């Protein structure tokens, strides 16, 4: 799975350019991102990487007090299903589910981070075989660029890489 991430990072993440009249900063090109992907991303065993990243990002923005959580357990006691909902300024933002409270909160945190990105998309090529490019932007910084045969596929690639970069920047220390 790590090799797949490296391929998607290496596509064109080292290019910078003006998009919609503003200049985007790219975190130090392909070489740094490959080093980051190979060594610095917390493992999947780190259950709270998205939650910590979300909290740190909101603290950095001065918005930590705007986030609140609501936890609901359903199902029998021997096999519960947890649903955790994140609220920003007392309005529903995202929800996540899991078999433990921690898993559900982590899923909601991942979705909250993914929802914070703004997107710029374009396609090239003929209409019958387009190649979509999606750029994930957070706080006027380009975090990732992904390509695919559909807009959804390009965003999926860019989202996975962008979330990895956010975890590296705002997440737990390795």
From TrEMBL:
The keyword RNA-binding applies. InterPro entries: dsRBD_dom. Residues 49-118, 117-168 form the DRBM domain. Keywords: RNA-binding. One of its GO terms (molecular function) is RNA binding. Residues 1-29 are annotated as: Disordered. The keyword RNA-binding applies. Residues 1-15 have a biased composition (Basic and acidic residues). This is DRBM domain-containing protein. It comes from Jaapia argillacea MUCL 33604.
